[in-house]
């Protein structure tokens, strides 16, 4: 499971039931619901969430890919948690879960999702791995953003998205901060909406109820993870 900093139960409830309902709408929208199938390779997208590496280990053992690229350097939010870099810590965690070293490639420089995909693609090409289908492994609420980014940058690849199979409640408990998780859900949805305008991703339809939930949460101050527009 994802790992965060434990927070006492009495400190965790920071949102109302209505806000949790809105967050759940956005959480469900972020997940692509793809049927998993064997792919040529996988990319584990770097982040603060070690659950990405846990999911990669589970999916490797299920026979869904022969090699995974863990991609990611550091960011202000991960430097303290992963001082040797996101991809390096992901690799170490996957090895501890039984993934063989020869099934792991490390890309240690990427600083955003576009670079995760671009640099991982270059690395797979350098080592001679032909990719027709690609399993993108991310945080649960990042599936859609990783998908739309990959469709823009690697359109010829058949993309399947995966993440740890967690409900929103379980993910909040693993991170230990309700407000922060909702901020991240809102921030990722803003990127899904805005990044196509910047040429970073393909367009996605946002259902009306999801967009309304987004606007309500923005109005309530769940905005610490927004980008400037």
From TrEMBL:
It holds the Pfam family DUF218. InterPro entries: Cell_Envelope_Assoc, DUF218, Rossmann-like_a/b/a_fold. Residues 52-153 form the DUF218 domain. This is YdcF family protein.
């Amino acid at each position: 499971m994802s790992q965060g900093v434990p927070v006492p139960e009495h400190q965790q409830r920071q949102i109302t039931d209505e806000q949790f309902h809105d967050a759940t709408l956005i959480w469900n929208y972020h997940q692509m619901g793809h049927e998993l199938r064997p792919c040529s390779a996988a990319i584990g997208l770097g982040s603060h969430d070690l659950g990405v590496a846990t999911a990669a280990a589970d999916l490797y053992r299920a026979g869904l890919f022969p090699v995974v690229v863990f991609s990611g350097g550091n960011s202000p939010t991960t430097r303290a948690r992963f001082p040797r870099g996101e991809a390096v810590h992901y690799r170490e965690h996957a090895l501890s879960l039984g993934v063989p070293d020869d099934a792991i490639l490390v890309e240690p420089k990427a600083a955003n999702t576009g670079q995760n995909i671009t640099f991982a693609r270059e690395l797979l090409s350098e080592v001679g791995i032909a990719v027709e289908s690609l399993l993108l492994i991310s945080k649960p609420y990042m599936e859609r953003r990783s998908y739309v980014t990959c469709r823009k940058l690697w359109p010829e690849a058949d993309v399947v998205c995966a993440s740890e199979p967690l409900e929103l409640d379980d993910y909040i408990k693993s991170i230990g901060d309700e407000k922060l998780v909702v901020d991240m859900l809102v921030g990722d949805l803003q990127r899904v909406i805005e990044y196509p305008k910047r040429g970073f991703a393909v367009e996605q339809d946002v259902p009306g109820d999801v967009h309304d939930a987004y606007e309500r949460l923005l109005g309530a101050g769940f905005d610490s993870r927004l980008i400037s527009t």
